[in-house]
């Protein structure tokens, strides 16, 4: 009853006036495109960033080095990297703008959000201004080796034919679970197993690692799922995959190389508690009809 009464059925996807523009390499304002427009790039990489001035450069260096080399090998391959500064209090925007000036604003764009929305909200805002046929979510810490995009691309292609051009390929760290348990405290291991059980029991049964921040979606799948999404913080990945299951969007899970990077914004106990609550709300709110599988347009 609490889950139903407190649910916001379909909140307006409001964009502040400042978020309708990005600053190009020349320092001028340009209107952001829309995911409803036809794609003009092969790949969009969306990088949600909150206070990432220290970790972002390593990720951007690796990603852009890979993307530039790939474009030289195959001139038909086009890309863009969208850094979404989620209301950072540090120099994240300024650090990202250095790459915009170096590579040009056709390849690197920086969207600065007026206030912190949470990781899911930041990813969604980036997805909604993407120009790519395929859209990759990639964390700012660079924990996943960027070249592993080829593995998730292969996973996506193996799902062909895509119903209504929709498919999702998820990077996965499930194969690293035994090693990670050996390095974690008993308490954190217990929290991890509890979270995995709740995900399996309440929401997503086919995917072992829902939380890896390396996911590749077709443009059509990104539009359908992110337009329906309600949760904007850590558990958004689970709702995203839950929505995909409900729409019968095929999902692949692909093992990727992953290294834990210091500086995580996840506070072990309270973040897991919030995520557990959100998992319960996902299940109950869709089950009771408080949340509907509808799509919305960003204003």
UniProtKB/TrEMBL annotation:
Glycosyltransferase 2-like domain ranges (all copies): 44-221
UniProt keyword Transferase present: yes
Enzyme class: transferase
Pathway membership, UniProt: Protein modification; protein glycosylation
Membrane topology: Single-pass membrane protein
GO cellular component: endoplasmic reticulum membrane
InterPro entries cross-referenced by the UniProt entry: DPG_synthase, Glyco_trans_2-like, Nucleotide-diphossugar_trans
GO biological process, alphabetically ordered: protein N-linked glycosylation
Catalytic activity as recorded in UniProt: a di-trans,poly-cis-dolichyl phosphate + UDP-alpha-D-glucose = a di-trans,poly-cis-dolichyl beta-D-glucosyl phosphate + UDP
Protein name as annotated: Dolichyl-phosphate beta-glucosyltransferase
